[in-house]
């Protein structure tokens, strides 16, 4: 614990004063009688932890694939992008899996065994998983100061709630991107906070956050936002932003960080998508080339946009990570990287709320990463395969759009994302259009054609503030089962748009 955390004054009063206690903790050190020495070993008659002999599971065997959609290699219908390919050394129909056997007891100190994993465990996360998170961040986005730490969360959703608990008191303001992951707005309001939207630049070559708008707002806060306290934090999804798909360059991040230093606020960096870096659109071939991956070094050096952590020198950045998009959402597992004082107050909160992340999830993830993928670089190799698959899917979907009449007639623009799962289709309504009304109608058109998309305006922090910029739809290439369905979805969306334009924006 460090007493000299420069930003201690920004921790919420609730978090700073939170006490925790546990009935099985020993007496306070100040009561220690002279000459006392605890026995080296003692027999546990105190904790209500069932001995692992009571656990009904003796071992778990996990079969791990080598590539996303591997099972479809022999089945052309599941994922056409991988159809007719074989991974070297494997028969596509009788494919091999890497088997990870998790036993009740293991002598390997880094392998989380079931005796520990299925037991009540450390609030911050098991030491094995915490060690991985530290090594992973050191390899990918090392903070520019020493006193940083990590804590596990039950996914980014719960991680974000830990953040608001740590820093927000009633009336505190959080700046948010005007189109954002709206569930977080409820986390802010739930603790009495006030979200205030920041303009985004919405075009295919923009970086999202409008730095001029942000600078002006901060410079003239009292005048522009009378009655509101100065912002305590900026919440941003800087890479493959949800919903727009936009990515902030490191240059923009430096400018935003400088504002955070000058105006004394935290940057909450929510980054579920950043590792899925994507090259610009290229006309897709019908198959993914499985032997054409980047090396980890190339990826880290030239492709991964550095996190705000890498420019943070004092603990202004609170980074929220998740395993939902890279491993599986059902794990409900993620982690937070922040100054150790922030992690300390989050740990106290967890002690009375979630206690710890799921032991089963931590056990499976830790063992799969260590034994199937081979540790930090192996995990990065898996991410490289994910990104290649996403990149292919993105190009498949965008190709249908670029080839469409709607695009060629100038009815729409597209944001080709540099990372993540989302692209945006911007509708070029003639000036003077009642965008709100027409977007509502267009939604019915999409429903009529049978294609699901998210109206950008549904993800506005303040619909009135954003109504002029709300003429876009978020689309994703993540859930479709194969390239064919993806293509069909893109084509239907484009047909619906042409139909709408040709009917003069009436249903
Ligand atoms: C920006 C953003 N933050 C947080 C989350 C929640 O993620 P998790 O599944 O890890 O709770 C999502 C999920 O879609 C998201 O898009």
Explain the overall architecture.
GO terms for molecular function: 2-aminoadipate transaminase activity; aromatic-amino-acid transaminase activity; pyridoxal phosphate binding. Its cofactor is pyridoxal 5'-phosphate. It holds the Pfam family Aminotran_1_2. It comes from Scheffersomyces spartinae. This is Aminotransferase class I/classII large domain-containing protein. α4 packs across α10 and α12 packs parallel to α16. The protein starts with 12 loop residues before the first helix and ends in a 5-residue tail after the last helix. The protein folds into two domains: 261 residues, Aspartate Aminotransferase, domain 2 (3-Layer(aba) Sandwich); 100 residues, Alpha-Beta Complex (Aspartate Aminotransferase, domain 1), CATH 3.90.1150.10. The protein contains 16 helices and 15 strands. The chain has 507 residues and is an alpha/beta fold. The strands form four sheets. A seven-stranded mixed beta sheet has the order 3-11-10-9-8-4-5. Bound molecules: pyridoxal-5'-phosphate. Pyridoxal-5'-phosphate binds next to α4.
- Just give the CATH class of the largest domain: Alpha Beta
| % residues in beta strands | 5-15%
Tell me the CATH superfamily of the largest domain: Type I PLP-dependent aspartate aminotransferase-like (Major domain)
Major sheet: 7 strands, mixed
Question: Mean pLDDT, rounded to whole units?
Answer: 92
Alpha-beta classification: alpha/beta
What is the number of beta strands? 15
- What would you say the CATH architecture of the largest domain is? 3-Layer(aba) Sandwich
Q: How many domains make up the 3D coordinates?
A: 2
**What is CATH's topology name of the largest domain?**
Aspartate Aminotransferase, domain 2
Low-confidence stretches: 83-92
- What ligand molecules are bound, each kind once? pyridoxal-5'-phosphate
Strand order of the largest sheet: 3-11-10-9-8-4-5
Radius of gyration: 25 Å
Helix tally equals 16
Cα distance spanning the termini: 62 Å
What percent of the residues sit in helical stretches (DSSP H or I)?
A: 25-40%
Shape: globular
């Amino acid at each position: 614990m460090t007493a000299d955390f420069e930003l201690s004054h920004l921790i919420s009063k609730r978090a700073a004063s939170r006490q925790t206690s546990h009935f099985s903790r020993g007496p306070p050190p100040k009561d220690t009688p002279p000459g006392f020495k605890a026995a080296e070993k003692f027999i546990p008659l105190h904790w209500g932890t069932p001995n692992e002999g009571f656990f009904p599971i003796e071992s778990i065997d996990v079969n791990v694939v080598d590539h996303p959609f591997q099972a479809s290699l022999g089945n052309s219908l599941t994922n056409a992008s991988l159809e007719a390919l074989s991974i070297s050394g494997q028969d596509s129909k009788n494919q091999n899996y890497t088997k990870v056997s998790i036993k009740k007891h293991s002598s390997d100190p880094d392998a989380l065994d079931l005796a520990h994993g299925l037991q009540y465990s450390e609030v911050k996360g098991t030491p094995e998983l915490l060690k991985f998170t530290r090594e992973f961040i050191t390899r990918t986005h090392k903070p520019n100061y020493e006193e940083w730490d990590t804590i596990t969360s039950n996914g980014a959703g719960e991680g974000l709630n830990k953040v608001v608990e740590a820093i927000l008191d009633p009336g505190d303001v959080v700046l948010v991107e005007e189109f954002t992951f709206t569930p977080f707005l409820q986390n802010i309001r739930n603790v009495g906070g006030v979200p205030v939207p920041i303009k985004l630049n919405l075009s295919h070559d923009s970086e999202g956050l409008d730095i001029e708008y942000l600078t002006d707002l901060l410079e003239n806060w009292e005048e522009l936002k009378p009655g509101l306290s100065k912002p305590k934090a900026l919440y941003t999804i800087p890479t493959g932003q949800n919903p727009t798909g936009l990515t902030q360059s490191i240059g923009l991040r430096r400018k935003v960080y400088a504002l955070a230093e000058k105006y004394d606020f935290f940057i909450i960096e929510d980054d579920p998508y950043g590792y899925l870096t994507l090259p610009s659109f290229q006309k897709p071939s019908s198959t993914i080339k499985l032997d054409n991956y980047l090396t980890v070094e190339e990826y880290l050096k030239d492709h991964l946009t550095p996190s705000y952590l890498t420019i943070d020198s004092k603990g202004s950045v609170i980074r929220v990570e998740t395993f939902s998009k890279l491993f599986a959402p059902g794990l409900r597992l993620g982690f937070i990287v922040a100054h150790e004082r922030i992690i300390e107050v989050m740990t106290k909160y967890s002690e009375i709320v979630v206690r710890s992340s799921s032991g089963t999830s931590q056990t499976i993830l830790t063992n799969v990463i260590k034994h199937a993928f081979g540790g930090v670089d192996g995990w990065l190799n898996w991410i490289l395969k994910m990104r290649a698959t996403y990149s292919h899917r993105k190009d498949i979907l965008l190709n249908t759009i670029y080839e469409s009449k709607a695009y060629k007639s100038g009815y729409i623009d597209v944001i080709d994302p540099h990372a993540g799962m989302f692209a945006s289709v911007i509708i070029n309504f003639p000036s003077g259009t009642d965008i709100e009304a027409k977007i509502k109608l267009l939604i019915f058109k999409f429903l009529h054609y049978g294609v699901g998309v998210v109206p950008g305006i549904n993800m506005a922090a303040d619909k009135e503030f954003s109504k002029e910029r709300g003429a876009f739809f978020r689309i994703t290439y993540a859930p479709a089962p194969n390239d064919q369905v993806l293509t069909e979805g893109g084509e239907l969306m484009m047909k619906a748009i042409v139909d709408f334009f040709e009917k003069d924006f009436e249903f």
